[in-house]
Structure prediction request, 153 residues.
Amino acid sequence: MNSLYGWLLVFHVLASMAVIGPAFVVPVIRRSARTAGQLRFAFGVAAKLAFLPKIGGVVLIVTGVWLMAETQIGFTQIWLNVAILLSLLMIVAIGAMIEPRAKKIMQMMPENQGQGDEIPREFAQAMRTIVPFESAAQALMVAITVLMVLKPF
Prediction:
């Protein structure tokens, strides 16, 4: 293993952690909120962590393409092609389905609501609309990770 390949692989794995970490943790934090204050806090954490998947995603693409060129693997492996397709689906699920809904929910929450107040029913219902998309994105991340590690076909 040459040193360039090793460093590219290290950055690729670190970038994947930057993408996967917040995508797994933020939904759990958001779903655990029981009061308006907790929900505001959960959305604040999500907003602060939002840059990690974006930067990590760019680094993943750059290092992934570079690794493909370095190993001269190209698009010849089915596992890699499937992983790339699933990654694109995950990006769409997060960027087009989850983030806009989450922003809309946060904008709906009145600032004057007390910290200990229960989350209004309409917010709880709106939060439930995000859950299937978050679960799908998490399942895609697991599938992508399995494909990248095991290279089954």
